[in-house]
Amino acid sequence: MTHTRPKILISACLLGEQVRYDGKDKLLNDDRIANWLQQSILVAICPEVSGGLSTPRAPAELQSRIEPQQVITINNADVTDAFKKGARQALELCISNDIKLAILTEGSPSCGSSNINDGQFRHRKIPGEGLTTKLLRENNITVFSHLEIDRAERYYQTLLN
Ligand code: SF4
Question: Is the CB of 109 under 6 A from ligand 1?
Answer without folding.
Answer: no
